[in-house]
Amino acid sequence: MKVYENKNKEIVNRVKEGLKRTGGYCPCRRERTPDTICMCKEFKDQIKDPNFEGYCLCMLYYKEK
């Protein structure tokens, strides 16, 4: 299992700009809760799933099997 940043630097830069604007909260979500602070709880849970492979909601991170 490996987790890494998206290889598309344009996407990474846009998401990181959004993170700066939101104070570290996922820029793809409306709610601002501890669960939506990057790296969000949803993606952390997906990482734990050995069968999951894919991007987080914002496409900042990718998890491969």
Descriptive report:
By secondary structure, the protein is an alpha+beta fold. The protein has one domain. It contains two helices and three strands. It is 34% helix and 15% strand.
Give the SSE order as H and E letters. EHHEE
Tally the helices: what do you get?
2
Q: Give the class from helix and strand content and strand pairing.
A: alpha+beta
Mean pLDDT: 96
The separation of the N and C termini measures 5 Å
Sequence of strands across the biggest β-sheet: 1-3-2
The total number of structural domains is 1
Features:
about 60 residues, alpha+beta, three-stranded antiparallel sheet, 2 helices, 3 strands, flat
Summarize the structure.
The protein is an alpha+beta fold and 65 residues long. 34% of the residues lie in helices and 15% in strands. It contains two helices and three strands.
How would you summarize the topology of this molecule?
Blueprint: E1 2-5, H1 9-22, H2 41-48, E2 54-55, E3 61-64
Antiparallel strand pairs: 1-3, 2-3
